[in-house]
Specification:
The chain is 48% helix and 11% strand. With 293 residues, the chain is of the alpha/beta class.
Length: 293
């Protein structure tokens, strides 16, 4: 169960979705399977918690719905400049779809779930702010696909199970894994990872390019992800959003069209207050104070 101080903080937080407010007003914070929580010591950084410890955060129908609601909250909250996706329990990240629940679902329910999961990961990927997956435990199947929808991935130094085991279960990655793996790793490595259903350790995942960082003992993946998020939120919020938007279009557009899009994104920043503040701070040799304006 989460701490009482976390529960009290959650009740006063302005960034919580209506669904989550309903959860904490009726029961306790620990009953929410997904929730958003700001980090009081680090303004601008929030965590999206996965909270099904009994199933290693396997994605259920209810969990998927709460995930969607939390993403809607984050999308429209300009006070959040970086988001870390993590587990409430150490030694865990996300074990993929809830296969126990899956056995009780009809074909129609399964199809609806897969469409919803694909859509939700698309929403995560398209958030206008930088996102980081803090992988402090197994990231399997849909769990690894979830991390692929984040901008950056950090694995804990002691994590030993990172992979896409679907072909061993008679299926294929169905929430974007085949497509995002190719874009992230290249065709050959994506084929190798999916065809063999191999499990990677954190160090192997770093070598493959599946993750971007591995924590050093005794730091956890979340510790390292938080360091990374702090480096990110020092920078101008509008510039971060524009950079993510331009980078996200790079693989979709021909080079000249991409350069035009970059130029248009750049031009919009020239008249912002943050741009003026950056120049004044540089001249005065002081840290800038960005307000997202």
């Amino acid at each position: 169960m989460l701490s009482r101080s976390l529960l009290v903080l959650s009740r006063s937080s302005p960034i919580l979705s209506q669904a989550f407010r309903r959860f904490i007003s009726n029961t306790s914070l620990s009953t929410a399977e997904v929730f958003v929580q700001p980090i009081p010591s680090d303004p601008g950084i929030a965590c999206l918690f996965l909270n099904r410890p009994q199933s290693k955060n396997a994605i259920s129908i209810n969990m998927l719905q709460e995930f969607q609601e939390c993403l809607e909250t984050v999308k429209f909250d300009k006070s959040i400049r970086a988001l870390v996706v993590r587990s409430t329990s150490m030694g865990s990240f996300c074990a993929g779809a809830d296969l126990i629940e899956r056995r009780t679902m009809t074909d129609t329910q399964i199809n609806k779930f897969l469409v919803g999961l694909r859509s939700t990961l698309g929403e995560l990927e398209s958030l206008p702010i930088p996102t980081i997956a803090a992988i402090d435990g197994p990231a399997l199947g849909g769990g690894l696909e979830l991390s692929f929808a984040c901008d950056l991935r950090v694995a804990g130094h002691d994590v030993t199970k990172i992979g896409l085991p679907e072909t061993r279960l008679g299926i294929i990655p169905g929430a974007g894994g085949t497509q995002r793996a190719v874009r992230l790793l290249g065709m050959s490595k994506a084929k190798d990872l999916i065809f063999t259903a191999r499990m990677l350790t954190a160090v192997e995942a770093l070598e493959w390019g599946v993750v971007d960082y591995v924590s050093t003992a005794p730091l956890t993946a979340f510790d390292r992800a938080l360091q990374l998020a702090r480096d990110i939120v020092k920078n101008a919020p509008l510039a971060l959003r524009a950079a993510k938007q331009a980078l996200s279009r790079a693989t979709d557009l021909p080079l000249e069209s991409g350069l035009d899009f970059e130029k248009a994104s750049y031009d919009l920043l020239l008249t912002t207050k943050d741009r003026t503040e950056a120049l004044e701070a540089f001249k005065a040799k002081r840290p800038p104070v960005f307000r997202g304006e």
